[in-house]
Amino acid sequence: MQSKKPKVRATLYLSAEVLDAARNAAAHLAGYPARLTLTQLAENALCAELERLQKEYNEGQNFPPRQGELRGGRPIAA
Prior knowledge:
The chain has about 80 residues and is an all-alpha fold. The chain has two helices and no strands.
Protein backbone atom coordinates (compact mmCIF):
# COMPACT_ATOMS: atom_id res chain seq x y z
CA MET A 1 0.00 0.00 0.00
CA GLN A 2 2.93 2.34 0.59
CA SER A 3 4.47 4.13 -2.33
CA LYS A 4 6.91 6.89 -3.18
CA LYS A 5 4.12 9.25 -4.27
CA PRO A 6 4.19 12.87 -3.09
CA LYS A 7 2.99 13.42 0.47
CA VAL A 8 0.01 15.57 1.39
CA ARG A 9 -0.59 17.34 4.67
CA ALA A 10 -3.23 15.88 6.99
CA THR A 11 -4.50 17.32 10.24
CA LEU A 12 -5.77 14.97 12.91
CA TYR A 13 -5.94 14.85 16.65
CA LEU A 14 -4.11 12.26 18.76
CA SER A 15 -3.78 11.89 22.49
CA ALA A 16 -0.73 13.66 23.86
CA GLU A 17 0.59 10.32 25.13
CA VAL A 18 0.43 8.62 21.71
CA LEU A 19 2.03 11.57 19.94
CA ASP A 20 4.77 11.83 22.54
CA ALA A 21 5.52 8.09 22.30
CA ALA A 22 5.60 8.32 18.48
CA ARG A 23 7.94 11.32 18.57
CA ASN A 24 10.21 9.50 21.04
CA ALA A 25 10.32 6.43 18.79
CA ALA A 26 11.05 8.51 15.69
CA ALA A 27 13.82 10.41 17.48
CA HIS A 28 15.36 7.20 18.84
CA LEU A 29 15.19 5.44 15.47
CA ALA A 30 16.15 8.42 13.28
CA GLY A 31 19.71 7.20 12.74
CA TYR A 32 21.20 4.07 11.27
CA PRO A 33 19.91 1.44 10.66
CA ALA A 34 16.18 2.36 10.84
CA ARG A 35 16.34 6.03 9.71
CA LEU A 36 12.70 6.34 10.74
CA THR A 37 10.78 9.61 10.55
CA LEU A 38 7.53 10.51 12.26
CA THR A 39 5.85 10.54 8.84
CA GLN A 40 7.12 7.04 8.05
CA LEU A 41 5.98 5.76 11.44
CA ALA A 42 2.49 7.22 10.97
CA GLU A 43 2.20 5.94 7.39
CA ASN A 44 3.38 2.45 8.39
CA ALA A 45 0.87 2.35 11.24
CA LEU A 46 -2.02 3.56 9.07
CA CYS A 47 -1.17 1.05 6.33
CA ALA A 48 -1.03 -1.83 8.82
CA GLU A 49 -4.37 -0.85 10.38
CA LEU A 50 -6.02 -0.35 6.98
CA GLU A 51 -4.87 -3.81 5.93
CA ARG A 52 -6.30 -5.29 9.14
CA LEU A 53 -9.62 -3.47 8.68
CA GLN A 54 -9.86 -4.54 5.03
CA LYS A 55 -9.34 -8.18 6.00
CA GLU A 56 -11.83 -8.00 8.87
CA TYR A 57 -14.59 -5.93 7.27
CA ASN A 58 -14.14 -5.96 3.49
CA GLU A 59 -12.89 -9.42 2.44
CA GLY A 60 -9.34 -8.08 2.15
CA GLN A 61 -10.32 -5.58 -0.55
CA ASN A 62 -9.76 -1.84 -0.62
CA PHE A 63 -12.68 0.13 0.73
CA PRO A 64 -14.77 1.87 -1.94
CA PRO A 65 -14.02 5.54 -2.63
CA ARG A 66 -15.93 7.93 -0.40
CA GLN A 67 -18.60 10.14 -1.95
CA GLY A 68 -17.48 13.33 -0.24
CA GLU A 69 -15.24 14.75 2.42
CA LEU A 70 -15.31 13.31 5.92
CA ARG A 71 -17.39 15.17 8.45
CA GLY A 72 -15.87 16.21 11.74
CA GLY A 73 -17.41 15.31 15.07
CA ARG A 74 -18.49 12.13 16.77
CA PRO A 75 -18.61 8.83 14.87
CA ILE A 76 -22.03 7.89 13.46
CA ALA A 77 -22.56 4.95 15.84
CA ALA A 78 -21.44 6.87 18.94
